[in-house]
Amino acid sequence: MSNEINSEFECITYEKLDTIARISHNRPKARNAESQLLLDEMDAAFRRAEADDDIRVIIIAGTGDHFSAGHDLKEAQAKRANFTVEERWAYESLRYFDYCIRIWDSPKPTIAQVQGACVAGGFMMANMCDLVVASEDAFFSDPVCHTLATASIEVLIHPWVMGLRQAKHMLFTGGRLKAADALAIGMVNLVVARSDLEAATLAEAAKVAAAPPFALRLLKRSLNRTFDVQGMRSALEAHFEIHQLSHVTEEFATKRSEGLAGAIRSAKTVSDRS
Ligand code: ZN
Q1: 85-103, pLDDT tens digit by residue?
Q2: 182 C-alpha to center of ligand 1: Å?
Q3: Of the residues 26, 89, 114, 153, which has the maximum number of CB atoms within 10 A of its CB?
Q4: Which CATH superfamily is domain 4-268 in?
Q5: Distance of CA 152 from the midpoint of ligand 1 (Å)
């Protein structure tokens, strides 16, 4: 198996493992928080994997103890706190919405490899993948209604991948969904020991990579269209706009004035409560 690690990136790693590309968040000290650069690099790497005829399956992962704690709130506070509606729309529609939907729409099959925290923006990205393999310590949450007073995150994929009632429970309480519970409701495909996560994900990827790629591409297209004809894309687009509205409310302004420390503290409280 050829193993080519590409080190031209600062915030991600790009590995070519035979017919599998593995793209990893690589800011482990920041719990793989998704900064602007990380998201831009992730999208560039994803396009590269899509354009590479040798690649049959794309894995999205995270180095260290966590998949990703979500969008980089410290950077957001420092660089984007005073964004106008227009500026926020431009930033979030490209980096949060379009980049995610590109993963969902990829002609190649994708697998999320998840350990530790898979929160908010991280939750959104992992759930764009076709399959999810998680380790026993993985947990999923989207507490931002509680912590930031926003209407969830930008891509409301939740009800489509976990069912409406489960989505409401997780979002309304701000709580955590453990890996075993995510498996029970069908949101993840496989839960393995932390030490087996990488091997188990590669094994699943190898099984998928063995399928004739064009047939698989057509199959994925048809499966995704099953959700599209139920209105998924329109619902996601409508939610993006609702989410933008929630960024300019009094509640949001109050949360922001309480500051980043307050948001992080309350995120921890909400998470610990569940
Ligand atoms: Zn937002």
Answers
A1: 999 999 999 999 999 999 9
A2: 25
A3: 114
A4: 2-enoyl-CoA Hydratase; Chain A, domain 1 (3.90.226.10)
A5: 8
